[in-house]
């Protein structure tokens, strides 16, 4: 089993990162380099979180071996026996041989740092560039990142000059490397505490509110009103951009040198706009004959960038609107089925996607009713209580982890109790649950936050390349300080525990923070206490209230603006529900019409064909005879009349009446 656990986790984490990236990204439309870079960043960060518990258990076993080797001892197979006290150091099932973990952490850490500070910022500018060639995009990316990279080089150069001039400093390369790592971790810890303070409160509260059907439905109505506004704005913006593209396409003809750039822009436009613009491009005029002002390549690159952004935003709002409609319809169905006497879940609309037969066999309407109406609310309440308990433990440990005598951090107490009995399974499970909960609080906040329309992780393959790369940057910058914070909470970091013991392989790669005493003994110790203030602010929704005062509509129960948006969203959902009901009723009537009159139409059509054959044979035999005064009607006209009758849809004069509401009565269905 030596190293097998490491290999299994490496494979599992890869497929986990691939699954999440497939949910948010679009493998078919986005550039392969963007997909590969984002996948690598996510994969390395998730890998650090999953492998660190194995590093902890291996370090505890190595400490035991060092303690045994310092006394007379005898070796026996997979464990070492201490002669005087007969103490045994069992080798953990997930033991990783010496020399593997330092190399592994060094490769993972420096690769992630290269991604977050050099490659991903460059690829962000490259992805957002509107250039028409690879060289043009690289040039634009270098210009945009010149200030970004120049600032870091200036700070680093000033620091090197200060160290070289000051005789009190005698820094070696390892110490200089540690200072760079400390600077990166300090920036990451600053952002980590902000995100952690929000996630520790919001995650348990969101699960608790998930048990309230009325709350979820009102919030869905609120989202519908906001999303409709954003959807209308995206459609209007797309129309304006397409109008500019049309003018440019009409002014720049086929023999113009910039026509290739215009064709590239047209390929990024939606299909209906391409067909509309292609109708007026049949002429072939010489652009030199008319003295018109043509746009430059720089302005076309800017237009190209706007087209990519507007098309992506329009597509995203359309998909999100359909998803929100399905969610609203489902929540309304849950509210209706709660008082059902048959205890079978009845859907207002059938699912548009084909369902799995295995799921249909086990997840019957009765099972769905018990889960949605009875079990799911209680499950969410219990889960919210468990998550709230974890949040309280994290907040307490963040405020007391610097105390070593006595040990006040609860995570350190749990690990030290298990270390005495060398229960490696318990140690790994406790470490994994702790760091997994911290990661969920931080990473879920990264997935939830939205910076206007520049950064937004939207599910169902609707996230743009810029947001994917930006999320990879955040993960790579947040994960190392998150792991160091976890090691501090469990007192596995010698800087916190103040013990002369063997450090973990991850800590040895980070280097000793004693080079910067004000960071190791000050910022790393006291700054995490700020999480208490952030948790209190999140509990009372101070950030939401501030955004609401600034004009950004947020969901608040005691706000008049929220009530107005809820009413507006409710009316929008009701309107869409009427539209879908009329569509389904029309399809049902058309299906019934075909089933009822289909055989009769087939027989009528066969008789018409037989009549045609008779008339054609009669005309051939009597071709020399004069035409009679009265003739039979043409069979083709008869067939056309039958097809029109078959496609006709009966009118329902009661569906759109003022007094009858299809939402209130089920007689129409």
TrEMBL record:
Keywords: Coiled coil, Membrane, Transmembrane, Transmembrane helix. The chain crosses the membrane at residues 6-21, 33-52, 103-126, 146-165, 177-201, 378-396, 425-446, 466-489, 523-542. Residues 576-669 are annotated as: Disordered. Residues 224-251 form a coiled coil. It is found in: Membrane. GO terms for biological process: adrenergic receptor signaling pathway. Residues 582-617, 635-644 have a biased composition (Basic and acidic residues). Its main location: membrane. InterPro entries: GPCR-associated_LMBR1, LMBR1-like_membr_prot. It is a multi-pass membrane protein. Residues 618-634 have a biased composition (Polar residues). One of its GO terms (cellular component) is membrane. Belongs to the LIMR family. This is LMBD2 protein.
């Amino acid at each position: 089993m030596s190293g097998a656990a490491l290999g299994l986790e490496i494979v599992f984490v890869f497929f986990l990162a691939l699954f999440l990236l497939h949910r948010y990204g679009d493998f078919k439309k986005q550039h392969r380099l963007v997909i590969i870079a984002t996948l690598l960043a996510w994969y390395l960060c998730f890998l650090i979180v999953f492998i660190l518990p194995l590093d902890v258990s291996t370090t505890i076993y190595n400490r035991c071996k060092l303690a045994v080797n310092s006394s007379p001892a005898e070796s026996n197979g997979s464990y070492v026996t201490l002669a005087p006290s007969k103490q045994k150091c069992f080798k953990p099932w997930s033991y990783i041989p010496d020399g593997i973990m330092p190399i592994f952490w060094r490769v993972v850490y420096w690769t992630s740092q290269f991604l977050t500070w050099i490659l991903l910022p460059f690829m962000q500018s490259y992805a957002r560039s509107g250039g028409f060639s690879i060289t043009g995009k690289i040039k634009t990316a270098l210009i945009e990142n010149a200030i970004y990279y120049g600032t870091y080089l200036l700070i680093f150069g000033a620091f090197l000059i200060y160290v070289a001039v000051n005789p009190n400093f005698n820094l070696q390369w390892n110490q200089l490397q540690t200072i760079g790592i400390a600077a990166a971790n300090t920036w990451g810890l600053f952002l980590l505490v902000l995100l952690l303070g929000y996630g520790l409160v919001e995650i348990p509260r969101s699960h608790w509110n998930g048990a309230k059907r009325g709350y979820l439905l009102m919030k869905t109505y609120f989202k519908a009103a906001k999303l409709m506004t954003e959807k209308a704005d995206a459609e209007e913006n797309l129309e304006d951009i397409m109008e500019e593209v049309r003018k440019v396409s009409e002014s720049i003809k086929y023999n113009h040198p910039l026509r290739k750039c215009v064709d590239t822009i047209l390929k990024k436009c939606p299909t209906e706009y391409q067909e509309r613009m292609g109708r007026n491009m049949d002429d072939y005029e010489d652009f030199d004959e008319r003295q018109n002002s043509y746009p430059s390549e720089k302005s076309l690159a800017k237009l190209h960038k706007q087209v990519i952004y507007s098309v992506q935003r329009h597509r995203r709002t359309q998909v999100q609107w359909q998803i929100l409609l399905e969610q609203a319809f489902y929540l309304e169905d849950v509210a209706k089925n709660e008082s059902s006497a048959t205890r079978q879940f009845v859907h207002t609309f059938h699912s548009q996607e084909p369902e799995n037969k295995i799921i249909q066999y086990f997840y019957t309407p009765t099972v769905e009713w018990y889960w949605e109406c009875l079990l799911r609310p209680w499950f969410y309440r219990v889960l919210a209580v468990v998550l709230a308990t974890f949040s309280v433990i994290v907040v307490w440990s963040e405020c007391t982890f610097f105390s070593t005598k006595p040990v006040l951090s609860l995570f350190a107490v749990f690990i030290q109790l298990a270390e005495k009995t060398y229960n490696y399974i318990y140690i790994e499970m406790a470490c994994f649950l702790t760091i997994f909960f911290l990661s969920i609080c931080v990473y879920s906040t990264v997935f939830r936050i939205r910076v206007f329309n520049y950064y937004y992780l939207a599910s169902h393959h609707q996230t743009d390349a810029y947001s994917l790369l930006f999320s990879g940057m955040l993960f790579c910058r947040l994960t190392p300080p998150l792991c160091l914070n976890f090691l501090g909470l469990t007192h596995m970091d010698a800087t916190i525990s103040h013990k002369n013991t063997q450090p973990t392989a991850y800590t040895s790669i980070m280097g000793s923070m004693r080079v910067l005493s004000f960071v190791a003994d000050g910022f790393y110790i006291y700054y995490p206490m700020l999480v208490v203030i952030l948790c209190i602010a999140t509990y009372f929704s101070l950030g939401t209230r501030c955004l609401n005062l600034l004009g950004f509509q947020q969901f608040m129960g005691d706000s008049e603006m929220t009530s107005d948006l809820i009413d507006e969203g409710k009316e929008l959902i009701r309107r869409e529900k009427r539209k879908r009901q009329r569509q389904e009723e029309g399809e049902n009537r058309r299906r019934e019409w075909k089933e009822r009159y289909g055989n009769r139409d087939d027989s009528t059509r066969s008789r018409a064909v037989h009549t045609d054959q008779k008339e054609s044979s009669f005309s051939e035999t009597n071709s020399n005879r004069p035409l009679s005064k009265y003739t039979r009607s043409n069979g083709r006209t008869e067939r056309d009349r039958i097809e029109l009758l078959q496609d006709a849809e009966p009118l329902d004069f009661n569906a759109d009446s003022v007094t009858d509401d299809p939402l209130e009565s089920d007689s129409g269905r």
